[in-house]
Specification:
This protein is α+β, with helices and mostly antiparallel strands and 220 residues long. It is built from six helices and eight strands; from the N terminus they run H-E-E-H-H-E-E-E-E-E-E-H-H-H.
């Protein structure tokens, strides 16, 4: 049964987005670690038009609403902004500040950026591609972060308490949740039994105790 499922030929319907397969149609997302730079990617199909998702992502002042570890973002120019990272719920906690600039901006399709100063050295690109039959938008996020001393030696990873790869996955997952549900679900405060050593390790690995972003534009 399992063999027949894995070996079957997948033929996408003509009006749906093609299923990625090995071969000429499949292009793996950039994921690498080379010369101290970790490149990580994630993709999500999100309900919404590319132009709408592009507009939401373009408003950097809303990032603290849906991205973990962002205390504030302020515009400093048409293509530049100043970021303060840390635990928003810890008033006395560590803060990391850096400047960022947009390096490429194609309305409704693509935004690229890079840090220009401070403790964070990273760049990234997000693209918005409509799926066939207008059944949503394929959003792909790729970020490259310089990690001179491994993930624990990186200021951004230290603030986020996640690996660079997990940061990309969680950022895009939260973006999807805020678009489709209008909020970011949280399990904080829910009861559970003893999780043992492995549960504690997973709690740290996946940042389960990280503060959840406020989540809605209506929340103060």
């Amino acid at each position: 049964m399992i063999t027949s499922i894995l070996s079957r030929e997948i033929t996408p319907e003509p009006d749906t987005y093609p299923v990625p397969q090995s071969g000429s149609e499949y292009v793996a997302l950039p994921n690498s670690k080379e010369d101290g730079v970790v490149t990580a990617s994630a993709a999500q199909t999100i309900q919404g038009k590319p132009a709408e998702l592009y507009e939401l992502w373009s408003d950097v002042t809303l990032f603290p609403r849906w991205q973990e570890g962002v205390v504030s973002v302020s515009r400093t120019g048409p293509t530049t902004s100043h970021w303060i990272m840390g635990d928003p719920e810890d008033q006395d906690g560590k803060r990391v500040e850096f400047d960022s600039e947009i390096t490429e901006d194609i309305s409704g399709e693509k935004i690229s950026w890079r840090s220009t100063g401070g403790d964070v050295h990273q760049s990234g690109t997000v693209t918005f591609v409509p799926t066939l039959a207008n059944r949503g938008t394929l959003v792909t996020l790729t970020q490259a972060v310089k990690v001179p001393l491994g993930s624990l030696g990186n200021a951004l990873a230290g603030i986020a308490k996640r690996s660079p790869k997990q940061i990309v996955i969680e950022d895009l997952r939260h973006f999807k949740q805020i678009v489709e549900a209008g909020e970011i679900p949280s399990v904080r405060g829910q009861s559970h039994g003893p999780r043992g050593v492995s549960g504690g390790v997973k709690e740290w690995m996946y940042g389960e105790t990280n503060p959840t972003p406020p989540g809605t534009s209506e929340q103060e």
